[in-house]
């Protein structure tokens, strides 16, 4: 696996940032989480005047062999159908990207369909879906390494355009299954507590999903981190990890979406703990277990709207809050300039 050089932001600037925030014309601490976000963004960018220029959103698509076991109410063809729909601007992710000024990159990392002729889709296909991890590893070591590289290279493309804030979403029927297993193994949480309805399973469907995933977990005896990732992960998920790590290496702000992307963020943090310093966990979704997974990394999500669409839509919805934090530190007047007596 590629090696990343990820270090925590230099904290020597913290007192100066705090002084600027405290001297804005407001009671000290009165803007709560916005002040915390402003501090995080300023430290990431090592400046008192941060910027969210050229925001980019990566929408990564991939299919999963485990879908063949009936663990999802949606069939796998929905993956490629939605990928094409995204190119027409008709998805939730399209709407929110337009609303908040994000450049959307739709990327085929491992969809089980030929999308090479579809304009608007970036072709980075590693294979037509992963293998069925109930019987064998989802991907080879070579495929795993390639997926990491794909994610990292996509971030380089964004940086070349001046991107300073990155959000990542996914499209892949069946991807709550590997996410649930990662949560179980990384968080030492009972598997049943990690499994939810996904795209809409009923109670018998959830029981079946639990049985299938429990069997798959028993198959893997070597519990080393890289092997867990490639044994169960999807190509879009491993590419997301590569993107998160490269973004942290380059000091970008990373907006972490829902259940799937939080599982990827958890994996990235286990690989490189300092990568968490660059992550903003944007929301707590409606998928069972998401709150517990956020608790593993002591994350405080910005929103709780009952979302479980995926695609990175929760991260995009939360972006205006981050924008408000940056505007606060850049645009609010201070007590001296406003000629107001400090009242804290």
Provide a short characterization of the protein structure:
With 344 residues, the chain is α/β, with parallel strands linked by helices. The protein has helices spanning 14-22, 32-45, 77-87, 92-100, 141-160, 176-187, 191-194, 203-218, 225-232, 235-249, 259-271, 290-296, 313-331, 335-338, and strands spanning 56-62, 103-110, 121-123, 165-171, 253-256, 279-281. The protein starts with 13 loop residues before the first helix and ends in a 6-residue tail after the last helix.
What do you see in this structure?
This protein has 344 residues and is of the alpha/beta class. Helix content is 47%, strand content 9%. The chain contains 14 helices and six strands. The protein has helices at 14-22, 32-45, 77-87, 92-100, 141-160, 176-187, 191-194, 203-218, 225-232, 235-249, 259-271, 290-296, 313-331, 335-338, and strands at residues 56-62, 103-110, 121-123, 165-171, 253-256, 279-281. A six-stranded parallel beta sheet has the order 3-2-1-4-5-6, sandwiched between helices. Strand 5 (253-256), helix 11 (259-271) and strand 6 form a beta-alpha-beta unit. Helix 2 (32-45) crosses helix 13 (313-331), helix 5 (141-160) packs across helix 10 and helix 6 (176-187) crosses helix 11. It is globular. 50% of the residues are buried. The model has no long low-confidence stretch (mean pLDDT 95).
